[in-house]
Amino acid sequence: MGGNILDQPLPSRKTDMLDPFLLIHHWAETMPGGQKQQNVGVGPHPHRGFAPVSFIFEGGVHHRDSLGTESIIYKGGTQWMNSGYGIVHSERPPKELAEKGGFVEFIQFWVNSPAKHKMDSAKYQPLTNEDTPKVYSDDQLVEVGVVAGELEGQKGPIDVDNPLLTLRLVGKKGGKKTVSIPSNYNALLYPLNGGMTINGETAVNAKDMVVFKLDGEGVDLEFSEDATAILLCGEPINEPVATYGPFVMNSQSEIMEAIKDYQEGKLGELEENFS
Description:
Layout: E1 7-10, E2 21-31, E3 42-47, E4 50-58, E5 60-65, E6 70-74, E7 78-82, E8 87-92, H1 95-100, E9 102-112, E10 123-127, E11 134-136, E12 142-148, E13 150-151, E14 154-155, E15 164-171, E16 176-180, E17 186-193, E18 195-198, E19 202-205, E20 210-213, E21 218-223, E22 227-234, E23 242-244, E24 247-249, H2 252-263
Antiparallel strand pairs: 1-2, 2-9, 3-8, 4-7, 4-9, 5-6, 5-8, 7-10, 11-12, 12-15, 13-14, 15-22, 16-21, 17-20, 17-22, 18-19, 18-21, 23-24
C-alpha cells in the first residue's frame, strides 16, 4: 500500500469478502527517521461507496482530505471515513514520526455501504483512545474498546451506514472474556500478535484470521498470551458488489461513472500543505 509492504488477511485464498467487510490491511513497521513527511505514507487518493477505517495501535496517522479536514490520531484511536459520493485523502505518519523515527502499527479495513448510502455526502470521524468507550472482563485482564455498535451498555461513538459492532481487544495472559454478537451478524477475529483460544477449543495465533458466519450469538475468548486483536461484526448487506481500486459500487457501470467523476475532479481535490 503506497509502496509499503503489509499483511492482507482479507481478501484471502479462502475468503474473498465477509459481507459487509471487504478488505483488511495490517501495517507494522519501524520507521528509520530522517525522512520528510511528504515522502512517506500514502499520498492523495480517492474513494467512493464504502468506509475505509484505520485502527491505530502504535504511532499515529496524519489524515488530510478534500473536505479541508486535517487530523492526527495516535495510539488507541480510530479514523473512520464514510467516503459516500466521493472524497480524496492522504494518510501519512505524523511529522515527528517521519523525522525522528519509531514504530507504527495500524489496521485498515473497508466496510461496504448499502446502495442507498453510497452517494451520501462524505464524512470523516476521528476517535481518540480517551473517547473510546471500554468494556472490561470480570478478571480485569481484557479491555474491549467499542468503536461502533453497542456492547454491554457501551455505545461506540461512530455513526455508521449499516448495523455493525467493531471492537478493539487488548488482553493479558490468562484473561477471559465472552463477547455477545447478534446472531444475524457475520464476524471475524484477527489477532495482531499473541495468542488465544476460541470457545475453549480452537487455538488462534498472531495473524490468524477466524471467520464466524451467522453461527451463534457470541464468542468465548481466553488469552493464552498477551495479545491485541480486532473483532469485526456486521449485518450482511446482501447486495451485488463491484470493485475497482478505491471504488466500491453495485455495478460495473457505476464503477465507470466513479472513475469518470474522479478524473473530472468531482470527488474533490487535495493539495497537501507541509510546514
